[in-house]
TrEMBL record, chains A, B:
Keywords tagged on the record: DNA-binding, Transcription, Transcription regulation
The protein's name in its UniProt record: LacI family transcriptional regulator
Source organism superkingdom: Bacteria
Entries under PANTHER family matching the protein: LACI-RELATED TRANSCRIPTIONAL REPRESSOR, LACTOSE OPERON REPRESSOR
Claim: Oxidoreductase is one of the keywords in the record: no
Pfam assignment, any one: Peripla_BP_3
Length: 322, 322
DNA sequence: GCGCTTCGTCGAAGCGCTTCGATGGTTTAG
DNA sequence: CTAAACCATCGAAGCGCTTCGACGAAGCGC
């Protein structure tokens, strides 16, 4: 019977039809536990992410959607399994106990204990993001270098010469959160390449922090005419600070929000120009990577770095003449 | 051995200690599939929600967090299982195949096919929200009646006499989405009770829709001095429309966002006064309900309706003197 | 026509647990 | 002092599948 469904061995066409008919008639359902036990495979992929509590951005939704679909097409279930960052052991045990066959790990930092635990136990996993060390690790990530370069180019092309970058929190920088570190470095490299006066600051993930930070930048460098932000929550504060000072967007100051979703950009007035986080692509690719590792098939060579595309809004424009 | 872990039968203290030691030494892990097969119980609760794609609000994060913790304390895993709304059969089969023991269903509408499918298959479930019919169904929900009453009272106490309510989309109303229907009715009842001039409108979930809607209200009823909103995304448009008309918040117009999170309120300037969605409480209660159904224990009498508490911001104030 | 491979089917052996009945040692009540 | 009651442990029977080996029935070339 098993063969009729899986096709692992040749089966007579008529026999298969009879099996199918019987299944339908009796309302038969294959028992997942028995299946997993006998086949040593749960057909479950766990998407673990620390503390869903922060709220899942639109990007995560897109990601999950695409990942789920990709998994389903391959005969797997994708489930989102909430874990705190400290629960390395629990994440690892998911697979060791056979609850899941492999793990997608989000919010990876450059040195991530969860990854160490997974490696030590030989648990199949794929990182969304990258640790500093990459040997023997499967991953996909946003191309921050490219994204920040494109962002700076976009603004430089518009004539801006002094650009500020509002990054994630100082804490994320200190703890080696990949995106924060990579974006900062890429921003500076791009600024140098274009001869831009660059300022970069970190900001906590709150509108208030973004407002204060922005205000401080404007005090210190009043010649700043463009902001690149990579901090959805703080961006709300950035625009508030500009409004406080009667600076018009985009006439006086341009704002470009990177690694975010246009939906968030639409919450502003005028709608923000953004560089959209490629949630969909990332979700699909990450599952492909993981499945390749699971099924031992050679990971078909596909780019692991995905870029953010510019999504035009109305918040960037030519630098004002002074 | 099983008994040593589960305590289902008396076990010598010393024997248990020996078992534990051996387990630790050998790095033994109970196999989930075998466990499920033998015990006919997966110890998994599935939180199904349609199209995560919309992005998971902070409230959902809170909910998941609390639900996950409650489940864990009872020896269950809570997993988030993304499904489209149309996939009733798949949701049902999760339990029939033994992938999960029970289901938490979010975003329930008054007539929900998913619920019909679950009922027909005798699958244990708890609804977050309510169908029109409630017989033999386990549920928890936000107390929209109470919340809207409190909202209207809050504004009436401040002297407002003309209040507009910005609800979810017309589509959600037409398809019988419980919150939309209940909130509208409750708003009107509360307005009548306080002798308030009430307007209610629906708005698509977009800032632009919110802006246009608000603009229309102000054209039609310029004497409106307060807005109650229950549409996180559209609320962004509401404040934009007020700003367009040089109306100050809260001096000229008050805004009260209900069933939302203070974090979202903080994205505005001034920070919005909100009535916070009780995600945490809802998550805990819903798992309790489901477990009671699963384990056949009498559902300890606890309120199924949870209220939204007022979280003071700076967007509501006394009605302006005219 | 005979041995050869190929195809389709059947039967049976586990997968690693939980659970139940049986066993024997120990305590308590009559 | 004996019968009943209790406690702790052992052994074995599945749970419902997958997978493998074996077997008969065809198909092939010489």
């Amino acid at each position: 019977m098993s063969y009729a469904l899986s096709g692992a061995r040749p089966i007579g066409t008529e026999t298969r039809a009879r099996v199918m008919a019987a299944i339908k008639e009796l309302g038969f359902e294959r028992n997942a536990a028995a299946r997993s036990l006998a086949a040593r495979r749960s057909h479950v992929l766990a998407l673990v992410l620390p503390t869903v509590a922060g709220g899942l951005s639109g990007t995560l939704g897109e990601f999950a959607q695409a990942a789920s679909q990709t998994a389903r097409d391959a005969g797997y279930h994708l489930v989102i399994w909430p874990f705190d960052r400290e629960e390395h052991a629990e994440v690892r045990d998911l697979v060791r106990q056979g609850q899941a066959d492999g793990v997608l790990v989000m919010e990876v930092s450059l040195h991530d204990e969860r990854i160490d635990a997974l490696l030590a136990s030989q648990v199949p996993f794929t990182m969304i993001g990258r640790t500093a060390e990459l040997d023997g690790r499967s991953w996909v990530d946003i191309d921050f270098e490219r994204t920040l370069t494109d962002a700076v180019d976009h603004l430089a092309d518009l004539g801006h010469t002094t650009i500020a970058f509002v990054n994630h929190s100082q804490h994320s920088l200190d703890t080696g959160y990949g995106p924060t570190v990579r974006a900062r470095d890429a921003f500076h490299a791009a600024a140098v390449a274009r001869g831009i006066h660059a300022t970069d600051v970190t900001s906590d993930e709150s509108p208030l922090a973004g407002r204060l930070t922005t205000s401080a930048i404007l005090d210190e460098r009043p010649e700043t005419t463009a902001f690149v932000t990579m901090n959805e929550t703080a961006t709300f504060g950035v625009t508030q600070a500009l409004r406080d000072r009667r600076l018009r967007v985009p006439d006086d100051v341009s704002v470009l929000a990177v690694v975010t979703s246009p939906e968030v950009g639409a919450m502003y007035h005028p709608p923000l120009t953004t560089m959209r986080a490629p949630g969909h692509e990332l979700g699909r690719r990450s599952v492909e990577e993981l499945l390749a590792a699971l099924e031992g098939t050679a990971p078909r060579e596909a780019p692991r770095l995905v870029t953010c595309a510019l999504s035009p809004g109305a918040s960037t424009g030519p630098a004002p003449r002074r």
